[in-house]
Specification:
about 800 residues; mainly beta; Immunoglobulin-like; Maltoporin, Chain A; 22-stranded antiparallel β-barrel; 5 helices; about 5% helix; elongated; disordered C terminus
């Protein structure tokens, strides 16, 4: 104990005798200059220590020995500043340079050629930043495909779901706006969104208090590009491709920038003809079919989608302290297709049934997001933001099923039950409207403390009319079990506050809390019955501690609490056709998931490591099997796990071998454990799950670039389901044409044709109707690799403006949440 005390005394003693400098850099408009270099120079003008200003433009230089020095401040676009010579001694250990106004450089380069871009992945305390433009595989890809190549992200094309670090419960934001859509629609939207329009993707596993608490696994924030060059600028990109079906993407964007106004827009059209196939082999005991049944079936799907994505916006600087703006994002998807089914049912001991069907139809939906905002710098270090958003989503789904289900004598099976009828007709129409308003306020409380606080209100109204009609005895017949008309209203009010404390240049603390009160009301308009009337108020604390050991090493520790509320589709009491024995349905008894996360992070230069401990109460797992109350139908629905524990490690390891070869490796995995009680017999499951991803980039002669990337996800479990592991290998080559004539890029996805989902039911516990089944689902690339050729070019030229140099200004570029 004495030794420990002596060490503390020595550390304290030396801290007192070493000198310290501080100050703040701002623009002529009093905006903080973030990420500027401040260097301490000796008498020979040699830099002996360099620090970087924080988001408030503040800097500190510690541990300075006695002597004579000068200070230098520099940043691109501004004149370099030098101080007069000053002395650090035992009598003058501290010096405050106060606020320094940096002046704009008199000469600007007419053209800047960037030789070294951003690294593909960057680490922040709240998560990983994917710099989408840093990958040559981006051109011609969709947002979903870029996500699939990102560390810790797993896309399940069989279920249309997204998980992060092995957990469901991910929410997606577009430019900082929470997309309050069912995950299935979000996956479709991302699959139709061109990656050419995306600047970065933020994988926020532990978001701070200013973000919505929604998303027990975290937040995926997609940040669209905004051209910052002064003058008129434009760009085009055209992609043609083929797998087992043709693909095409055309993108254009433009911007008009002056010192006071920025007008921008983009439009993308994409066409995709795709195929998939599925094989199912199962055994089950279904009393309504006569007892034990063995099934073997083949399903072949063809789908054609035509997608339109448009963005437009304007930012106007009213004066030096006030900016207003508005934006609009519009997405439209037209999807048509058909699924052919050929299945045999062997009802033991000797009754053979043959089922054939064609399920064909179309899905059309529109998504519109409008935003207006105002930002006001009240005074130096004090700012207030107002924003309002409105989201409108409309989905219309129509399909018909023509089938024959006959025994070996050619007689119709099913005893005239509705789902065994030779023709089915299904329809669904969903309208979701969301209004959001928020106010955010920040104030610098002294040189080392910053306050962030705000309030937010969101109101959602969803209506859905759906049902299945069966042709029985020549009459279209429906039932309450296969139809619904649901009205859902949800309101969420939130308030948050956080303090960001910069103890010194190497140590910081951000502590905050967010309170959210939510009510959910769901009624069956057809029957007038109340399905759900739920109210919940929860406090979500968060804390982030960061300690920089030296220029290369940093430690971080954080705690966050989050929630995943059931989506509209999760709660709605039904409806979707699967086969004559099963339907997709919702679960109005679902509870929200509450998650507690503790994260320990360490970074060494560009390498980063993190250890995440999380506890989920009532985690939601979709596509689980249960029996109908009358045991005459199989329900495929979401269910709550009792709990789920995760101990996950994540690592991002970039390497630069030489000037022409660089690589990135990512790992996310650990021990996962959960408990299930909705099955006939409760059980617990523990397993080790992980995902790997990598990329190799090569700069070749004659302006060629080559990239090879891939990922692998090992075996995983989802409630009672087991999914086998598999991986994908991709490659692309890019040629920069001379005289700024643009670029050509050729890419191949899933070279080894290995994107197959092999799923097992009944291997962990006894399923509904004692089902044991094997499902093999092949995506299009498992049948033939997808090849794309892209040409892109930028027009216009002008001066590349600094990103307002303000770290908080990066948030501006997102269309505020």
């Amino acid at each position: 104990m004495k030794t420990f005390g002596a060490i503390l005394f020595v550390c304290f003693f030396f801290q007192q005798v070493n000198g310290q400098l501080r100050g703040r850099l701002v623009t002529t408009d009093s905006l903080p200059l973030a990420y500027a270099n401040v260097s301490l120079l000796n008498q020979d003008s040699v830099a002996i220590k360099t620090v970087v200003t924080n988001v408030a433009g503040m800097y500190e230089v510690d541990n300075i020995s006695a002597g004579n020095y000068r200070l230098r401040a520099s940043i691109v676009g501004y004149q370099t500043w030098y101080s007069d010579t000053f002395t650090v001694s035992g009598y003058q250990k501290e010096k405050d340079f106060g606020m320094l106004v940096m002046t704009t450089a008199k000469k600007q380069l007419e053209e800047v050629i960037v030789k070294a871009g951003k690294s593909l992945f960057q680490q922040k305390p709240e998560g990983t930043i994917v710099n989408v433009e840093s990958s040559i595989l981006t051109k011609g890809s969709t947002a979903l495909q870029v996500l699939e190549r990102s560390p810790g992200v797993v896309i399940n094309h069989r279920d249309n779901s997204i998980s992060l670090n092995g957990k469901n419960g991910v929410v997606v934001m577009l430019n900082g706006k929470l997309m309050r859509l069912p995950i299935e629609q979000l996956v479709s939207l991302l699959d139709g969104m061109s990656a050419d329009d995306i600047a970065t993707i933020e994988l926020l596993t532990t978001p701070p208090a200013k973000y919505d608490a929604e998303g027990s696994a975290g937040i995926i924030n997609i940040v669209l590009k905004k051209n910052k060059k002064q003058g008129d600028n434009a760009g085009i990109s055209i992609t043609g491709g083929y797998g087992k079906g043709e693909k095409g993407v055309a993108t254009m964007n433009f911007s008009h920038n002056t010192k006071r106004m920025n007008v921008y827009g983009s439009y993308t059209f994409s066409h995709n003809k795709t195929y998939s196939e599925m094989y199912v082999a199962s055994s089950q005991n279904m009393p309504f079919m006569g007892g034990a049944v063995a099934v073997a079936g083949w399903f072949n799907t063809k789908a054609i989608s035509n997608n339109h994505d448009a963005t437009a916006g304007i930012d106007v600087k009213i004066n030096a302290k006030t900016t207003i703006g508005a934006s609009i994002n519009y997405n439209r998807i037209n999807l048509s297709g058909s699924t052919a089914t050929d299945a045999g049912y062997n009802v033991l001991p000797d009754s053979l049934l043959h089922f054939k069907s064609i399920n064909q139809g179309g899905n059309h939906w529109n998504n519109l997001v409008n935003t207006v905002y105002l930002e006001k710098d009240i005074r130096n270090g004090e700012k207030i933001n107002f924003s309002a958003d409105w989201l409108y989503f409309n989905n219309s789904d129509r399909y018909t099923v023509q089938s024959s289900f006959i025994n070996k004598n050619g007689i119709q099976a099913g005893d005239n039950q509705s789902l065994f009828a030779p023709e089915q007709m299904g329809a669904a129409n969903t309208v979701i409207q969301v209004g959001v308003a928020r106010v955010d306020y920040t104030k610098q409380l002294g040189k080392k403390v910053k306050l962030e606080t705000g309030i937010k209100g969101a109101y959602t109204r969803s209506t859905s009319l759906s049902g299945i009609l069966s042709l029985l005895n020549g009459v279209w017949t429906g039932s309450d079990e296969t139809s619904n008309h649901i009205l859902m209203k949800e309101g969420i009010g939130a308030a948050y506050a956080s303090l960001n404390i910069q103890f010194n240049a190497s140590t910081s603390l951000a502590a905050g809390a967010r309170y959210e009160y939510a009510y959910t009301n769901m009624d069956n308009s057809k029957t007038g019955a109340a399905i759900i009337n739920r109210k919940l108020g929860t406090l979500f604390p968060s804390i982030f501690f960061s300690k920089k050991i030296n220029d290369d090493e940093t430690w971080q520790l954080s705690y966050t609490k989050r929630i995943s509320r059931p989506s509209y589709n999760d709660l709605a009491s039904y409806v979707g056709y699967s086969d004559p024995t099963a339907v997709y349905t919702g679960n109005p008894f679902l509870q929200p998931t509450i998650t507690n996360n503790i994260k320990l992070g360490y970074s060494y230069k560009a390498w980063s490591f993190s250890l995440l401990f999380s506890r989920d109460d009532n985690a939601i797992e979709r596509y689980q099997l249960t029996e109908s109350p009358a045991r005459d139908m199989l329900y495929i629905s979401p269910q709550n796990l009792d709990w789920q524990n995760n101990i996950m490690m994540q690592a991002t390891l970039p390497f630069k071998i030489n000037n022409w070869w660089s690589m990135n490796y990512g790992f996310a995995g650990g021990i996962r454990q959960y408990k299930v009680s909705y099955t006939k017999t409760a059980f617990e499951k523990t397993y080790f799950g992980y995902s790997l991803n990598f990329s190799q980039a090569f700069k070749l002669p004659s302006n060629f670039l080559l990239e090879v990337s891939g990922w692998y996800n090992n075996s995983s479990y989802n409630g009672t389901r087991k999914q086998d592991g598999f991986g994908v290998l991709n490659a692309g080559i890019k040629k920069e044409l001379k005289k700024n004539a643009g670029s050509l890029q050729l890419s191949v996805s899933d070279i080894l044709m290995n994107e197959r989902y092999n799923i097992h039911y009944g291997t962990i516990t006894q399923e509904a109707f004692s089902i044991k089944s094997y499902v093999s689902f092949n995506t299009e690339s498992a049948m033939f690799p997808i090849i794309r050729l892209t040409y892109s070019r930028s027009f216009g030229g002008g001066i590349n403006q600094r990103r307002q140099i303000n770290g908080a200004q990066d948030e501006k570029e997102r269309i505020r949440n």
